[in-house]
Each structure stands twice: as C-alpha cells, then as structure tokens.
Amino acid sequence: MSEALLQVKDLKVAYGGIHAVKGIDLEIGHGELVALIGANGAGKTTTLKTLVGMIKPAGGEILFDGQPTARLASYQYVGRGLVLVPEGRGVFPRLTVAENLLMGAHVRNDKPGIAHDIERVYHLFPRLKERQAQLAGTLSGGEQQMLAIGRAIMSRPKLLLLDEPSMGLAPIIVQKIFEIIRMIAAEGVTMLLVEQNAKLALETANRGYVMESGRITLADSAANLLANEAIQKAYLGE
Amino acid sequence: MDIFIQQLINGLIVGSIYALIALGYTMVYGIMQLINFAHGEIVMIGAMVTITCINLLLGLGVQLPGPLLLLAGLLMAIPVSMLLGFTIERVAYRPLRRAPRLAPLITAIGVSIVLQQLAMLIWGRNYRPFPAILPTVVHDFYGAAITDLQIAIFILAFLLMGGLFFLIERTKLGRAMRATSQNPDVAGLMGVNINTVISMTFVIGSALGAVAGVMVAANYDQAHAYMGFMIGLKAFTAAVLGGIGNLAGAVVGGILLGLIESLGSGYLGDLTGGFLGSHYKDIFAFVVLIAVLIFRPSGLMGERVAERA
C-alpha cells in the first residue's frame, strides 16, 4: 500500500466544553474495511462527524487522498469522495425512495452514470426497487437503512463512513445489512464502520480500532482483536 | 348584476394574488421555520418600482401599448425584489441561523418597518395611482362583470404557480430544496450547499411577490408604502390556513381566503342589517386566522405523512 486513503493525526474535537475526542490517530488504506468500536459516548460518532466536516476539529490534521480537508465547507466533502451514512439513517422522509437515491448523486452530473448506479443499488437492494415510488418515511427501519446506504453509494464514494448501521434493527435484518456491507467492500469501496455490535463489526472488518473516552486504546487486525481477552470481556460479552 | 357571481369572481382574483404571496411565506417557512414578515414589503416594492418605471417611460415619451409598458415595469421590478429578498436573507437572517427562533422573528418585523420607512422616503406618504395605461374591457359573465385585467391576473397567477410546482417537484434544485427542508444536515452531507438553497428560496419567493404586488396595484389602481403590511398579513393568514410549509396548502388557503373575504364582505351589510358595511372586509382574514389557530393550528393541509422510526 503506497499511501493511506485517510490519515488522521492527533485529532481533537471539543464542543459545548466537552472534549469528546482527545487526540486520536487513524489510518485507512485503499480498499480496507476498518471497524471503530467502543462503548456509548466513547466519541465514535463525533469522530465520524468530524471526518465529514459536520463538526470542526479543535486540533490535529485530517488528510484525505493526501489533501488536508480543513478548508472544505461541509457540503464539499461528498464531492471529494467522503460520505457518511449517519446514525439513525437520516433518509428524507417526504421524498420518494428514488428521489432519496438521486439526492445521493446530487454532486454528479453524468446522467447515464447516475441511471446505471441506481440500477446497481436496486440490484443490491431489490426491496428498494419495489418501493421506488414510495415516500421514504413509510419504509421500515431496515429498508430505511438500506436506502441510506444505497443513497451514500450513489455518490461513488472513495471512503464510505457507516455510523451504527445495525442500530434498532431486528437481528435477521442486521445480518442482511452486513451481507450488503461485505458485498460493497468486495466491490473495492473503502469503509470505516462504527458499531456497537463489536463482534459483528470485527467479523466483517479487516482491521479494528478500539475507542475509549475519546482515545484510541487499541489498534490491531480484526482477527487479533476478536481473540483478545480484554476485548472479549469488555465488548464481546464472552 | 348578480352579487354572488360577482363576489365569487372578485374572490378568485384576489385569492389567486394572496396565493402567490402566501407561497413566498410558506417556502421560507418550509426551509428554515422562519416567518419572513418583510415579505409584504417586497410585494409593495415590486408594485412601487413598476409604477415608477412605467411613469418614467411615459415621461420619456415612449410610445408603447399598455401591456408592453406594464411588462417593462415588471421586468424592472422582479430583479429589484429578487435582489432585495436575497439581501434581506444575507444581512438580517443568516447571522441568526443558529439563534433562538424569536430572534429572527423580531428581526423580520424590524426589516419590515425599515423597508416601509424607506419606501416612504422614496415614494412619499401619499397613494401612488397606477398609471392608466390599460384599456378597461369589461365582459359580462352570467350577470357579473369581469375585466381583461382580472382575467390576465388569474391566468398569470396560475401559470406562475404551475411553474413553481414544476420547479419544486421536477427539478434538481427543487429536490434539493425539499431535502433541505426535511433534513438540512443530511442534505449538506449529500453535497447540497444549504446557503445557496436558502438564497434561492428567498429569490424565487420575492419574484412571485413582486408580480403579486403589481397585480394588487393594477387591480386596485393604486399603491402605497404601507400596502405591504395588510396584504402581507392576509397572505400569511392564507399560508397558515392552508398549513404553513405546504405549497399546495398556500394555494388553497389563498383562494379560500379570497373567497371568504369577498363573499363575506358582499353580504356583510345584509347580514348585520346595514350596521357593518363592506369596508369591514379586512376582519374576515383575521377571524379566519384566529379560528384556524384555535381549531386546526396545523392548517387544512398541514398534516404530515406518518414517519416511522
């Protein structure tokens, strides 16, 4: 691997007087699927939001594709290839499924490419095709998660950030969502996956970071983390 | 003359103007939950600029048919109002985007007063007559009278509304506007420049407002620096009646309010035995506003689609 796709150095984030992220280093190489696990309130979501410019960092540096992102406005990140599937999905409830997908391609202007990618998303998620004319607010939670992921893919991201894709979903739906995540990874999309379900996340990822109260406390291959006794006790419930 | 049909016609004409203005209120509210109380002043300035422009052309001895003179005035007024709407948002509302909701509301009232006073300085405190450039052609319609001007107002209002609906429902900008109104943070993630979308909302609403202002001035043959206050309040009432934030609701609310006001004032004298005359017509808008706020605060079409978690 020549140069990492994402390099985060000593990133600090503070808001409302709280230091949510206290100087972390992260690196994600091209084509990797990296999991970021940790307890509630460890700073995982804050980290993701900072990576896409929704929160401005208090210190440190973020290099994406070799370029610093500090000067980008938040709406410019997606054009650079960085997109977040937010916690709670954030679909546009009163847009149709098809319109939600088109919103994912908002920064693109290649009509044939967009049409092709919509078909690709419908191929990954046949349920969305059946419901393409339906308002997104009427979909089930699992369908909304599929839509949120499909919408993010529509931007043809270089790095896809996923925040708690399993949240609030039935186990069988979670399995389905993770199957799709593996399929997308197999297509070569680089991903950073934040998950409370640490076992599932580490079984899916190549590498993992463990975050505790704003700091990265462990970084290793997913297999090693799964075998780590301390991790098993703290996060895997074994 | 048939009073019922006559008032029906008047109500539809006035209602279609209310609807155009109400769309400006409801678009801004839909995107940033702000009541832009300065919108009425944008309507007024549209009327004033048009009158000034026509008088200027007449003063220069320009020989053009009336409708073309009116068009020239409109083409001047629309960009002025658009620029004004754009500027108001940039100067008065954008710095308060993250402030408590009361702050921009008070600012809106402040902007409205500033614009009224400014208009007084420029155009004086007297009524400005609308130049008599349009021939008055009256048609008989089942015993009621309708003029060419009224027919033109009605058709133009609905053409503009149709254009707006096309823009909102069928174009990329419209889709971005709807997405922004539903979830601005995620719209930003998708690459929508929220500031541009909000500016466009003000600009489009102001253009419709300018046209509506000219319609009001042409229909009543006059304009005044304070005209924006009452027409703005009524259009706001129409937007609330239809369900604020809902475009179709603004159209329905506008037409309904026009009809209620027109029919109500037409029969008010008979109903009260001559105690109250038709010059009390303004009370209808506010009776409607109070009734809606008490009995159906979300408005006629303000119900949202059920959203599952």
UniProtKB/TrEMBL annotation, chain A:
<comment type="similarity">
    <text>Belongs to the ABC transporter superfamily.</text>
</comment>
<dbReference type="Pfam" id="PF00005">
    <property type="entry name" value="ABC_tran"/>
</dbReference>
<dbReference type="InterPro" id="IPR003439">
    <property type="entry name" value="ABC_transporter-like_ATP-bd"/>
</dbReference>
<dbReference type="InterPro" id="IPR052156">
    <property type="entry name" value="BCAA_Transport_ATP-bd_LivF"/>
</dbReference>
<dbReference type="InterPro" id="IPR030660">
    <property type="entry name" value="ABC_branched_ATPase_LivF/BraG"/>
</dbReference>
<keyword id="KW-0547">Nucleotide-binding</keyword>
<keyword id="KW-0067">ATP-binding</keyword>
<dbReference type="InterPro" id="IPR017871">
    <property type="entry name" value="ABC_transporter-like_CS"/>
</dbReference>
<dbReference type="GO" id="GO:0005524">
    <property type="term" value="F:ATP binding"/>
</dbReference>
<dbReference type="InterPro" id="IPR027417">
    <property type="entry name" value="P-loop_NTPase"/>
</dbReference>
<keyword id="KW-0813">Transport</keyword>
<keyword id="KW-1003">Cell membrane</keyword>
<protein>
    <submittedName>
        <fullName>ABC transporter ATP-binding protein</fullName>
    </submittedName>
</protein>
<feature type="domain" description="ABC transporter">
    <location>
        <begin position="6"/>
        <end position="238"/>
    </location>
</feature>
<dbReference type="InterPro" id="IPR003593">
    <property type="entry name" value="AAA+_ATPase"/>
</dbReference>
<keyword id="KW-0029">Amino-acid transport</keyword>
<keyword id="KW-0472">Membrane</keyword>
Automatic annotation (TrEMBL), chain B:
<keyword id="KW-0812">Transmembrane</keyword>
<keyword id="KW-0029">Amino-acid transport</keyword>
<dbReference type="InterPro" id="IPR052157">
    <property type="entry name" value="BCAA_transport_permease"/>
</dbReference>
<feature type="transmembrane region" description="Helical">
    <location>
        <begin position="248"/>
        <end position="268"/>
    </location>
</feature>
<feature type="transmembrane region" description="Helical">
    <location>
        <begin position="12"/>
        <end position="35"/>
    </location>
</feature>
<keyword id="KW-1133">Transmembrane helix</keyword>
<protein>
    <submittedName>
        <fullName>Branched-chain amino acid ABC transporter permease</fullName>
    </submittedName>
</protein>
<dbReference type="InterPro" id="IPR001851">
    <property type="entry name" value="ABC_transp_permease"/>
</dbReference>
<feature type="transmembrane region" description="Helical">
    <location>
        <begin position="144"/>
        <end position="168"/>
    </location>
</feature>
<feature type="transmembrane region" description="Helical">
    <location>
        <begin position="189"/>
        <end position="217"/>
    </location>
</feature>
<feature type="transmembrane region" description="Helical">
    <location>
        <begin position="283"/>
        <end position="302"/>
    </location>
</feature>
<keyword id="KW-0813">Transport</keyword>
<comment type="similarity">
    <text>Belongs to the binding-protein-dependent transport system permease family. LivHM subfamily.</text>
</comment>
<keyword id="KW-0472">Membrane</keyword>
<feature type="transmembrane region" description="Helical">
    <location>
        <begin position="68"/>
        <end position="93"/>
    </location>
</feature>
<keyword id="KW-0997">Cell inner membrane</keyword>
<keyword id="KW-1003">Cell membrane</keyword>
<feature type="transmembrane region" description="Helical">
    <location>
        <begin position="42"/>
        <end position="62"/>
    </location>
</feature>
<dbReference type="Pfam" id="PF02653">
    <property type="entry name" value="BPD_transp_2"/>
</dbReference>
<feature type="transmembrane region" description="Helical">
    <location>
        <begin position="105"/>
        <end position="124"/>
    </location>
</feature>
